[in-house]
Write a structure and sequence with these properties.
The chain has 100 residues and is an all-alpha fold. It has helices spanning 3-17, 22-32, 39-50, 70-78. The protein is built from four helices and no strands. The radius of gyration is 16 Å and the shape is globular.
């Protein structure tokens, strides 16, 4: 990434954080990606993804019944972050049944 692009991204990021409305902007951006409802989960995923730069980043386990939109929620939320920083893992429910 070039210096000019990096500076522009830094300016835009600082603009989002200034004024204390970051979560509002994050929720709006996720909604604009097509996620309806799931406000709390979207914000949790957004905050968790931001911890990738921390010394001890957090992990998120998303559980729920089949066909309830878990994968869509995660994929849409992660569209706000660079794809090269994402790691996708899945657990087959039959293999791990009873381990929760």
């Amino acid at each position: 990434m070039g210096r000019t692009k990096r500076r522009r991204i830094d300016r835009e990021a600082h603009g989002l954080f200034d004024g204390g409305r970051f979560l509002f902007h994050a929720r709006r951006a996720i909604r604009d990606l097509g996620v309806i409802g799931e406000r709390r989960n979207c914000l949790i995923l957004t905050l968790a993804a931001m911890t990738r730069v921390f010394e001890s980043p957090v992990s998120v386990l998303v559980r729920g019944s089949p066909s309830t939109g878990k994968s869509t929620l995660i994929k849409r939320s992660l569209e706000l972050h660079p794809p090269e920083l994402q790691i996708e893992r899945s657990i087959h429910p039959r293999i791990n049944k009873g381990t929760y």
